[in-house]
Amino acid sequence: MSDETVRGYVFGVLEPLVPADWKTDPGIPSAMHSLSKPLMWLEYTSFSALPEAPLAKISASVDVCIVTNRSDMRKGEADADESIAELFEAALTSNSFYSISAAKSVFWDAYIGWRLSLTVITKNPTPAAPAGNTEE
Q1: The whole model's pTM is what?
Q2: What are the DSSP calls for 53-65, one per residue?
Q3: In the prediction, which pLDDT does 31 show?
Q4: Which residues contact residue 49 at a Cβ distance below 8 angstroms, ignoring those fewer than 6 apart?
Q5: Burial environment of residue 93 by CB neighbours within 10 A (0 to 12, 13 to 18, 19 or more)
Q6: In 3-state terms, what secondary structure has residue 14?
Q7: In whole angstroms, how far apart are CA 9 and each of 13, 42, 59, 65, 103?
Q8: Backbone angles phi, psi at 78, to 5 degrees
Q9: Stretch 95-106: mean pLDDT, rounded?
Q10: SS3 of 19, please?
């Protein structure tokens, strides 16, 4: 990983892989009442010492949250499953992440999506301040 912040690095790798008609945000958005388009954002969740990588020393985890804009859970689930499969494959082939896992999630009690949990190895765990919150 370069000397960028963890959040900036992960967003820089993944943002170009998200469909152009999606809204993206490097930080956590405000609670949504309605979404006009699917949304992806990052949550910097943790970091810890990594003894097996003494030069980097730090394992940093980021959740990439992907939520559809469909309030119909059945239709939204199909959209979310298709979207996560593509992004998961792209993350795997990027060779940018130490570990990758995904879990289905419901956001704001209204929209279905996924949390793609990524781990990067770094020397600096400093998260970037989000550039701004997404509001619909």
Answers
A1: 0.81
A2: -TTT-EEEEEEEE
A3: 66
A4: 57, 58, 59
A5: exposed
A6: helix
A7: 6, 11, 14, 16, 22
A8: -60, -45
A9: 90
A10: coil
